[in-house]
Write the structure tokens for this entry.
Amino acid sequence: MQIKKDGKGQLYIEWQQAAGGYKRAWVQHREPDRDWANTPEGVT
């Protein structure tokens, strides 16, 4: 599997799912301390 860049410079991987059918998934960069779910205070 290779990591490539799209036209916007974003990293993605691409693989063949079936004959002639390809899928892509983009690499996400996240801040480790950010609360993405907006959980209430005191909930872990």
